[in-house]
Write a structure and sequence with these properties.
Chain lengths: 570, 70
Amino acid sequence: MKTNRWVTFATLFLFLALPFVCFAAPTEGSKQLLDFIIPVTWGNWLAAIFPLILLLILLVKYRWGAAEAGALAWIFVALISVFVFRTPMETLALSTVKGVWSAIFSILIVVWPAILIYAVTNEAGAFEPFRKGIERITPNRLLQIMAFSWGFAGFLQGVTGFGVPVAIAAPLLVGIGVRPLAAVIIVLIGHAWNNTFGTLAVAWLALKEVTQIGPADAAITAFYAGIFIWLFNIVAGLTICWLYGRMKGIREGLPAVIIISLLQGGGTLVLGQWNDNLNGFIAGVLGFLVVFALGRTHWYNKPSSIPPEESPVLMPETDVKIQSVSGKKEMGFHLAFSPYYILLALTLGVGLIQPLKSFLGQWKWSLYFPATTTGFGFTSAEALAYGAFRPLSHGATFLFLSAVIGYIIFNAKGYVKPGGLGRILHSTIEKCIPATIAMVSLVCLSVLMRETGSVNVLAYGVGNATGDYYAFMSPFVGVLGAFMTGSNTAANILFSTFQQTAAEVIGGNPATLLAAQTAGAAAGNTIAPGNVLLGTTTVGILGSEGDVLRVTMVVALGLAAVIGLAVLLI
Amino acid sequence: MNKKMKLLIVASLLALMGTPILYVGGKDNNPTTMMIGFIVFCLGMGVVLYMKLFAKAPAKTPPSDAKKTS
């Protein structure tokens, strides 16, 4: 309570100090490396970054939940938008609506059915047979964890995206005995490598589209992006091992890391020169299938040398047993996994058969938004169909159908006790409500920053401040883009042309900067509040977002620094 | 359903109710409608902050696994 009081005082102080900061913000910039319609001054830059710093401090330092921290940060963003970035009421209103629309039809639409599918699986007691089935493939807990968080989540990212890998793989890890907090961290780190070329390479295609690079330049950019992604992939594998058993974990997991990353990261590098669309999918499939082969090798056909009680990521056996439902007839592995088989069949069936996807994709819900302009002349274009949600071809629908069919199957086989449906719905609603308000505030915050140009001020400010050394900072801009938007695609749309211009100004190589942009954005997905919230909600630890960020931030920023150094040296 | 959950439902409903009002106000550039929309939407956000800053927090144990992983 004492901490809360201090936070209240600090917040009130900042609230009262805000107008002074706003009026003090100079409007004329000094020498600028890159011209931007909004003056990129220290005052404007600090005003733009302040809500993000506040958000991170509240989440990480004071351990506020995303809902509360997001709500407070949104209020500050709104005030700063009006007083510093000269945002008229109309822009503020329409940006808020865009934020709510995006929160619902981009993220929550995945969160809700993901929670439902977890509740159905849990109610039927399907996690215990699922765990036993996995143990038959490999008794090694470290490889099991790598299989789900790295292989399976990377594969899911290859075919679907939209946060589905986090929403699916994190609860599965909990089901096999991983602590909820660790499950979220591990999956966030394990799946993000496939963000650029996954989901049929939509992020990569967006980068090519906005920068209008020719085939030759695209091939060079894909080459560098492949190298950076491979590096990310290796770091992801090693981090999972380290979290499992520190140095002992790395020693034990090294053969798997080398082989899986060779197929995932190396596959991405090679396939990037051949096919854009299928790159992430094929690399994801190869990386997942090789886990089954690894389970038969002498390294992993026996239990891990690190006892479960010594691993910080595993729950005590007693806690795991609580999750299984006793007194029911034994369920087979394939039956336990049936909702996920249905999900895979629907996703692959619709996602990879292009005519079917196009046919189902013709029905969509979207909103019309007129163009808006701030007092600085920063314009957001008119959107005839903003945030189009295609209900028949979206991963959320597949998740929902899988949950419903899964329930019907479990119920028909007698694995759902009387009153089970009520319990499933109650547990789903109980998790959905806090996630909803949290997601709305966070997405509104990021959309408002985007629509008022303050995100661009941040990026241009970094460019101006670092000058010739901007190359080092280029992946951090990608990280910022993904942090703000929760999407590699959106980050590439937002900042790729900026990276291209910056490369020309500093006389750098546009290919390496663009590659750093998309690789940085992939890393940024591990710290995007939306993704973090997706994980914490689905495993039932909502409010622990700061604890997740403490680990994923180190990985994302550390990786961005390594990529930045590489870009600087190339 | 506990009090916190009820308040969160109220906050979510207020934020969602404010959205169409904001949309109509923003699209037609009608300041009165926009203002009403903002008030309703901000009330939703305000409820969440009220719960955090001023409501009596129940005795809560931190997640058992919070420290072990980091």
